[in-house]
Design brief:
121 residues; mainly beta; Jelly Rolls; five-stranded antiparallel sheet; three-stranded antiparallel sheet; 8 strands; 41% strand; RmlC-like_jellyroll; RmlC_Cupin_sf
Length: 121
């Protein structure tokens, strides 16, 4: 609320607008951050995880592929999972994974939600 008691303006955007093309590195853009929560847009242009590198986060991650395509390799699986627009995947905390490949012909746009894992009861 501002000094007059009005709520702050509601931010608006489009995840597929102004998509950066950067062949040297993936681009990460935080859209919303709160304690224990981060929502971000990730744009890949042919990038992959470095050989032998695995993500291993203490948070859960839920990803949605919006455009392009990608191969996501989960530790213990024989081959990467192929993702197309509309495909999503929930990666529980400490689910080791790596980006095997992303589309080199067009930007691959991801929506990623990082949050604290559910309490184990």
């Amino acid at each position: 609320m501002d000094a007059k008691g009005n709520p702050p303006p509601a931010p608006q955007g489009n995840l597929l607008a102004q998509v950066p093309v950067d062949r040297t590195a993936e681009r990460f853009e935080a859209l919303l951050e709160r304690p224990g929560l981060k929502i971000e847009r990730i744009v890949s242009n042919g990038q992959a995880s470095p050989k032998g590198f695995w993500y291993d986060s203490a948070q859960d991650e839920w990803v949605l592929l919006l455009s392009g395509s990608a191969g996501l390799h989960l530790d213990g699986e024989a081959a990467p999972r192929t993702l197309a627009p509309g495909d999503y995947l929930h990666l529980p905390a400490h689910c080791r994974h790596r980006v095997a490949w992303t589309d080199a012909q067009q930007p691959t746009v991801w929506l990623a939600v990082h949050c604290e894992p559910a309490a184990q009861g």
